[in-house]
Amino acid sequence: MVDREAAAEGDSALNSDAFGPKLVEVYLARLCSDENPEVRARAAPVIACLPEGACSGDDNPTTVLLRLLNDAEWLVRLHAVRALAGPQKRPTAGLAAAIVERLTDANWRVREAAARALLKLGPPGVDKLLEHLVSTQDRYSREQIIEEIERAGLLPTLLAHYAERPHGRESHVVEQFVNAGKTSGLLAVLENGAGPEARDQFIKDFGRHADPQIRVWVERIARD
Questions:
Q1: Alpha helices per DSSP H over the chain
Q2: Predicted confidence band at 19 (pLDDT cuts at 50, 70, 90)?
């Protein structure tokens, strides 16, 4: 009972200095494997706050978080991903790769959280997100990433790089937007914000695409 109270209260003060060896043991050895998924979920942000030097037997914060990221319960996976998006934890390479795996999670909330967590990692995370977008065969994963890229306001930067490297990865990313029918945001940025080089390259690559929004836009550009 005391352990579960610790999980309920621990995430209200995420400061690694507050945890002595006994409390570290509680989180790394007990709460992370509690039979109640809500307890495991609430333990995740606290475990993410622990320094890597903290350990319980062979377990440390990274190994425990990896288990929580692959928990059978979506709620636990969700909280583990969100914990890694917080400022108190900079994911290691192994944890970042595990977040990428959650981009194809069966639950859309977990997919959303994974995309947002990678975006918060800055350029390295964005790179992993774009790489996954152009390589995955999971339609739901692609749609989630496209939505988060738009929401994060990355389209102007994406289109600028697309104009600079018309045969690079960015062209495949733009193609994913077009094939998914997510063109309204692209066209809005091409109209107001992107340089003429991006607009010209887009017309060259997709001017004959069957998407009705693209066709109307191209016809209007031709008239102007």
A1: 2-10, 21-25, 37-49, 61-69, 74-84, 93-101, 108-119, 123-135, 139-151, 155-164, 169-179, 184-191, 196-206, 212-223
A2: low
